[in-house]
Amino acid sequence: MTGRTDETSATRPEEAAAFLAVDDLHAGYGDVRVLHGVSLRVGEGEICAILGPNGAGKTTLLRALCGMVKGRGGVRLDGTSLAGCSPDAVARRGVAHVPEGRGTFVPLTVEENLRLGAFARRDRAAVQSDLERVYGHFPVLRERVGQAAGSLSGGEQQMLAIGRALMSRPRLLLLDEPSLGLAPLVTRELFGIVRAINEEERTTVVVVEQNAHLALGIADQAHVLESGRIALSGSAADIRADEQVAQSYLGYRI
To answer: Name one GO molecular function term (predicted).
Structure first.
């Protein structure tokens, strides 16, 4: 695969078919390069899991996709290049990023946080219906609607962060370590909701996750990063079922 990003070059057939197309992406921080030629494809309406050990470049990949980290290479969303776009411009094109650590505005109420997710929208009449849609996915948030976000449990704050992202009506949802710091029962519930959002709204999801077994349980496809390069790609079912892969790359036994 080539890393050309020239807008005048012809789009390859596989690029045209992919909703998210990443080609030969290099990115890092200052003089420290983290990603070394990452290429992948995600179809519209799919869930893609990005797996790998700490320091593999998973968070940097999401940051590069949403414009937080500048990179060299090609990133296209539904045929439109995102290369060189600011985070605001990427968000306007339908990408929502839920960072590691949730990033909720802790002094604000649940509803205020959710409405902030719709700040760039002009269809104000539809915002209330979207609030109801988010409460449908996360009923606990309706019960906490007037509470400060900082008073919520870790799981509730993660639900709030995802709900706020949904208020922008994203076409692509990027989730960075959604299970971080959560109890196993809460994590399973959260991943079930993410799958429901994907199925009901056809939102394409790219999820970075340390809990490989759980992520593979909801994903359609997966890529394993190792030292900033893709070491393994395939269907989530095949990767999950391969005992050698699980032990060598993902750190668990089937």
So the answer is: ATP binding
